[in-house]
Write a structure and sequence with these properties.
Chain A: One of its GO terms (molecular function) is ATP hydrolysis activity. Chain A: This is ABC transporter ATP-binding protein. The structure holds two protein chains of two kinds. Chain A is built from nine helices and twelve strands. By secondary structure, chain A is of the alpha/beta class. By secondary structure, chain B is an all-alpha fold. Chain B contains 19 helices and four strands. Chain B has a two-stranded antiparallel sheet. The longest helix of chain B has 29 residues. The two termini of chain B are 36 Å apart. Chains A and B meet through helix 2, strand 8, helix 4, helix 5 and helix 6 of A and helix 1, helix 11, helix 14 and helix 15 of B.
């Protein structure tokens, strides 16, 4: 594992009007590791993903990329760093075809004219190396099934060699087989040195691929576990707030331990 | 064997990395039991040499899919246009005479160019109600600068168009940056710019300008030399054929599936028939109008912009989902402002054509009919009110239908009230079809 973590968050807070969505959240993701982010509904998981991906920047807090302080104010900033995201709602333009969605915001063009042939060729190549079957890459994504859309969104995140992958509930609309394939893929990516932040409710998935589990509860850190040593019960009780273990105590403020 | 589930993404992309079979991924190998031909149909080797039957089968599937989605492209609109023309021709044989068609081909230009601007705005799922007033304003600005202040025509034209662009920019800024709904901003614009126009026109209520000047020429100039008419038609057809063949060759070279050559020939032939018939008919009266050529140029340019440039792609993306576009790194604010600027600019240009037709700047464009016709043209032509679906060509088809109805009923001596009712009815049908198509898409699409 590299000495320098890929991404470090310290004291990240975000507030939506009266709701404190994130409060002093800390998180570290290194290259070549899969960090699972768990938490109950409204724990702030998706908000944290949006903070990192630049869609909803934090109000305050420090973000470091390979030890260098950075600001991510816009999605473009995250793209430049090599942070790719699969959002829970997939964030696809329904009227554009698969190729259009994959290359949206980073179109290949020659002298200002879209190079559709090259984009389609790369799309097919990428789908092919991932062994994904999409019957026609020129149909609007609105006409694809939920699973296919999910797969396209994941494919899009892999375009352009990301360094850090944020996956917000990527298995939500996948079948058993596809989920297995996705978990394989995540392991492959980790072995290639990518950092992966995986949000999931599925303890099985997380036990299978994650190295560490970070738990959020009500917008705050509520524990950090090593998947190999922590028990499932420990993690679950940390999610639900029933736990009062040493790890939770380290990062949790006293009033948070109340049920 | 390729196609073993998508847990092996690195084969070609990271060939230099060492084998990476962790025990955990091995244990799950059995789960990933895709059919062995997974991904094959797209692969390079087989793509280039699909048999004819396969190609036809794929084509038939595509047609069936589009039928099911209510996505028929321009076919329903062309049918509607054919029906309109057939009915009026049946009622009055002068309807399809070269003379009437020639007049029609110039009458559509002003409204049509404004409708192209409306198409841009509709594509991002918004509406611009100020285009009629901006068209009137452009005419008034031009006439007052040129006639009252003696400014050279070309400069007055530039200032008039710049006024449209600036007003559109203001609308776009208020909408995209401040967050005022586009409907309200442009409604305010409708009133305010109409007021400015009336102020400029003053007590005279209209300003006549030179009948031989630059602006008047826009709609009074006709070409009837063989080179300028059939030549342009031949050039357009040849350009289409060349671009189609080049695309096909590039796809073949890249090892991707490509359409049959017959399809290109059929489309080229259809285009040639349409172009040469139009030229032939128009030459029998006065020739090909300059205004029509400019209109077609605006449409082709807009269409190429939307379909072939990254900027156009972003406009379409906004119609498909502003949030998704934003997350993909599209500068949503800038695209929105640009779209309203385009709409304002095209409205001003269209306004100059309307003024040119009358050789005077008057209150006519601001009366509201121009706005209604422009929006109706875009929607009747097949551009969706819900954003993300449409093409500048719909402006041409829609305005042809609207103007044909108006022209046909004028020939028949139908009173304006009936004309309004009929045009309104056509617009209603178009909007209903649009909504049904959208509902079908939603029902078929994901939750």
């Amino acid at each position: 594992m590299p000495v320098q973590p890929l991404l470090t968050l310290r004291g990240v807070s975000k507030r939506f009007a009266a709701v404190q969505a994130l409060m002093d959240v800390e998180l570290e993701i290194s290259g070549g590791e899969v960090v699972a982010l768990m938490g109950d509904n409204a724990a702030g998981k998706s908000t944290l993903v949006k903070v990192i991906s630049g869609v909803g920047p934090a109000d305050k807090g420090v973000m470091e990329w390979q030890g260098r302080a950075i600001q991510i104010r816009r999605p473009q900033d995250a793209h430049v760093l090599g942070i790719a995201t699969v959002y829970q709602d997939l964030a696809m333009c329904d009227n554009l075809d698969v190729v259009g969605n994959l290359f949206l915001g980073r179109e290949i063009h020659r002298l200002g004219v879209l190079d559709e042939v090259e984009m389609e060729r790369r799309t097919r190549e990428l789908l092919h190396t991932l062994s994904i079957r999409i019957p026609d890459v020129r149909v609007p994504v609105a006409s694809l099934s939920g699973g296919q859309r999910q797969v396209v969104a994941i494919t899009r995140s892999l375009l352009g060699e990301p360094r850090l992958l944020l996956l917000d509930e990527p298995t939500a609309s996948l079948g058993v087989e596809q989920t297995g394939q996705l978990l394989d893929l995540i392991e492959e990516l980790r072995d290639r040195g990518l950092g992966v932040l995986l949000i999931s409710h599925n303890m099985g998935d997380i036990k299978a691929v994650a190295d560490r589990v970070a738990v959020l509860r009500l917008g705050r850190n509520n524990g950090l576990f090593d998947v190999n040593t922590a028990s499932q019960e420990q993690i679950i009780s940390s999610i639900t707030g029933a736990a009062d273990n040493s790890v939770a105590q380290r990062t949790t403020h006293p009033e948070e331990t109340w049920p | 064997m390729r196609g073993r589930g998508w847990g092996r993404p690195t084969r070609t992309r990271a060939a230099d990395t060492p084998p990476t079979d962790s025990p955990r991924s091995d244990s799950r190998q059995s789960d990933s039991s895709d059919p062995p031909d997974s991904g094959r149909s797209d692969s390079r080797e087989s793509a280039g040499r699909r048999s004819l039957t396969e190609q036809l089968g794929a084509h038939a599937r595509a047609v069936r899919r589009r039928l099911g989605e209510g996505d028929l492209g321009p076919v329903p609109v062309l049918l509607a246009l054919a029906v309109t023309w057939a009915v009026f021709q049946g009622l009055n044989p002068r309807f399809l005479s070269p003379r009437n068609l020639s007049v029609l081909s110039v009458d559509i230009v002003g409204t049509g160019i404004i409708a192209v601007g409306i198409v841009f705005v509709l594509l991002i799922g918004e509406i611009d109600l100020s285009v009629g007033s901006l068209a009137g304003l452009a005419g008034a600005v031009f006439a007052s600068l040129n006639v009252n202040l003696g400014m050279p025509e070309w400069l007055a034209v530039l200032v008039a168009v710049a006024c449209g662009a600036a007003a559109g920019c203001l609308h776009g800024f208020s909408f995209a940056k401040i967050g005022v709904p586009a409907f309200v901003v442009t409604l305010a614009g409708l009133l305010a710019w109409n007021g400015v126009m009336l102020y400029l026109l003053g007590t005279e209520t209209s300003i006549n300008f030179s009948e031989t000047g630059l602006v008047a020429t826009l709609t009074s100039r006709y070409f009837d030399t063989v080179v300028a008419t059939y030549g342009v038609a031949a050039l357009a057809t040849a350009a289409y054929l060349l671009v189609s063949c080049r695309d096909r060759r590039r796809r073949a070279a890249a090892g991707m599936p490509y359409g049959p050559m017959t399809r290109i020939w059929v489309r080229t032939a259809l285009l040639a028939v349409a172009a040469f018939t139009a030229v032939h008919v128009l030459r029998r009266f006065a020739g090909v109008p300059l205004a029509l050529l400019i209109f077609l140029a605006v449409i082709v340019a807009s269409d190429l912009f939307l379909r072939r440039t990254p900027y156009g792609r972003r406009v379409l993306a906004l119609g498909g989902g502003p949030e998704a576009a934003r997350r993909a790194g599209v500068d949503v604010t800038r695209v929105r402002i640009a779209v309203f600027m385009a709409s304002g600019t095209l409205a001003a240009v269209g306004g100059l054509f309307v003024a040119s037709r009358l050789t005077s700047a008057s209150q006519v464009p601001g009366s509201g009919m121009l706005l209604i016709n422009a929006i109706a043209a875009a929607v009747i032509g097949g551009t969706s009110l819900f954003g993300g679906r449409g093409s500048p060509w719909s402006a041409l088809l829609g305005v042809l239908i609207i103007q044909s109805i108006a022209s046909g009923m004028a020939l028949l001596g139908v009173e304006p009230p009936i004309q309004f009712i009929v045009t309104g009815g056509v617009l209603y049908v178009a909007v209903v079809l649009d909504s049904l198509a959208r509902r079908a898409a939603v029902a078929r699409g994901r939750p």
